[in-house]
Design a protein that fits this description.
By secondary structure, the protein is α+β, with helices and mostly antiparallel strands. The chain has 2 domains: about 270 residues, Beta Barrel (Butyryl-CoA Dehydrogenase, subunit A, domain 2); about 190 residues, Butyryl-CoA Dehydrogenase, subunit A, domain 3, CATH 1.20.140.10. It has 18 helices and 14 strands. The strands form 4 sheets. The chain has a 6-stranded mixed sheet with strand order 2-1-10-11-7-6, with no helix packed on it. A hairpin with a 2-residue loop joins strand 6 and strand 7. Helix 5 packs antiparallel against helix 6, helix 9 packs antiparallel against helix 11 and helix 10 runs antiparallel to helix 17. The radius of gyration is 24 Å and the shape is globular.
Length: about 500
């Protein structure tokens, strides 16, 4: 099958029987649900741009498995240049959607599972690598979206998986059969889960022998028997039910997270990529985390570009664009954003081949990239809020601006009064000023803040996870030896 168009992607979702719950009720037509649809539009953009000749160099690649053209999100990186193009693609999509476009977790899980299964097979004589290659060929040929799912609820985080009072706090095997396994548990914070055709499950932490039933990786359709999803709340999400595009801020695009429950789901042997090989669980986790930390040097930078542009527009709306302190803040925002991008490019450019043949990023630099991501977007947003002013969060509703209710002494309506008193620059209509302010609110505090601010902190591992990896890979002993060599210390 050729690459799907964006419209074909949307229609393909309608064929799924995914069980989705929102606000306590099952939603049959979740594709057109006003809270869900913006996140579908964001993924749709990954298909639309792949069809555009101007972007095909970034958005598509040649599969090493089939020799066919595939969407880059379904590609195994074959060079450091592939890794660089990935980051550039992610920045482009952030610029186009100002939101999370939800396919990075799938791409990053493909590359982590591909190399880990190869090395696991070499050590244990298993056949997971062939299983995974066959699965990925199917994904590429059908141009599917796959949700990479790693994060378990974890329960009491002071206890190992096998020691949890409730064993379902980590996904685990509850039965092994000749034709496959039965799994139970849940994955949380799952980005783009209900918008995906398939799910690729991975362990969430390094395991010990006692945890071998939790050392499991597999793929299953999103609408498989026993799989259901509870949609996650986002700040200001019910504004999408009120009928005002302006109050939503970014009415077309958005992100999505959900709780994905696995209620005794059967997984055929062909879709199993780890089944008790606990000694390779840490490798899979570390490699996925490294790829995903690299990803943030692209997607968050693209959204950052939009935040900077919105802040500059807000300054123009307020009539202060020439003020030196405004210019200085925009420069600082740009400096921080390009620093993040530099880290994403650096860890990509220093990538290397794995034994399986696909390319892995420089793990130290990827962790440095993500450590910066946990900080810089917060400062970029702070400066954006500083430039925009308090109006960003105190504006009346769009219904007030459109209200025909008479309130003024000369017969002015509430709409007239709001339009009058929230005007600033004489050449910029009040409505345009409101649109910019609501757009910034969406990214800084609203639905998009999930994917720009909070995900920057906790996505792909919370800050301490990167610091642990930096400590492991920072080679302090090697740096001490440099000094000894220079000054002549022999021990």
């Amino acid at each position: 099958m050729a690459l799907m168009t964006g419209d074909q992607y949307v229609e393909s979702l309608r064929k799924l029987k995914t069980r989705v719950y929102i606000f306590g009720e099952r939603v049959e037509n979740w594709v057109d649900h006003p809270i869900v649809r913006p996140s579908i539009n964001s993924i749709k953009m990954t298909y639309d741009l792949a069809q555009d000749p101007a972007y095909q160099d970034l958005m598509t690649a040649t599969s090493n498995l089939t020799g066919e053209t595939v969407n880059r999100f379904n590609h195994l990186h074959q060079s450091a240049d592939d890794l660089v193009r990935k980051v550039k693609m992610q920045r482009l999509l952030g610029q186009k959607t100002a939101s999370c476009f939800q396919r990075c977790v799938g791409m990053d899980s493909f590359n982590a599972v591909y190399s880990t299964t190869y090395e696991c097979d070499q050590a244990h004589g298993t056949h997971y690598h062939d299983n995974f290659k066959n699965f990925l060929k199917m994904v590429q040929e059908n141009d599917y979206v796959v949700d990479g799912a790693m994060t378990d609820p974890k329960g009491d985080r002071g206890l190992a998986p096998h020691a949890q009072p409730d064993p379902d706090m980590f996904v685990h095997v509850v039965a092994r059969r000749d034709d496959g396994i039965v799994v139970r548990g849940a994955k949380v914070h799952q980005t783009g889960s209900i918008n995906s055709h398939w799910h690729l499950m991975m362990p969430t932490i390094a395991m010990r022998e006692e945890d071998k039933d939790y050392a499991v990786s597999f793929a299953c359709p999103s609408d498989a028997e026993g799989v259901y999803m509870v949609y996650g709340r986002q700040s200001c999400d019910t504004r999408k039910l009120e009928g005002s595009d302006i109050d939503v801020g970014n009415p077309k695009f958005g992100g999505q997270e959900a709780l994905v429950v696995l209620d005794d789901v059967f997984i055929p042997n062909a879709y199993i990529f780890m089944n008790g090989e606990y000694d390779f669980s840490g490798m899979m986790v570390e490699r996925f985390a490294g790829y995903h930390r690299q990803s943030y040097g692209g997607c968050k930078v693209g959204v950052g570009d939009v935040v900077i542009g919105a802040a500059a527009l807000a300054a123009e709306c307020n009539g202060v664009e020439r003020a030196s302190h405004i210019k200085d803040k925009l420069i600082e925002m740009t400096h921080l954003n390009e620093t993040l991008y530099s880290c994403g490019i650096a860890c990509s450019a220093e990538g290397h081949a794995t034994p399986a043949g696909n390319y892995q990023i420089n793990l130290l630099l990827a962790n440095v990239c993500k450590q910066n991501i946990t900080r810089f977007p917060y400062e970029i947003v702070r400066l954006a809020e500083d430039i925009a002013g308090g109006l960003m969060v105190t504006l009346p509703a769009d219904k007030d601006f459109k209200s025909a209710t008479v309130a003024g002494r000369n017969g002015e309506t509430i709409g007239d009064i709001c339009t009058k008193y929230f005007a600033a620059h004489e050449d910029i209509p009040t409505e345009d000023r409101v649109k910019v302010m609501r757009f910034l609110e969406n990214i800084c505090l609203g639905t998009a803040a999930v994917g720009y601010r909070t995900e920057s902190m906790h996505g792909a591992g919370s800050p301490q996870a990167q610091r642990i990896m930096i400590a492991r890979q920072g080679n302090i002993d090697g740096k001490k030896q440099l000094v000894k060599d220079i000054v002549g210390i022999e021990k």
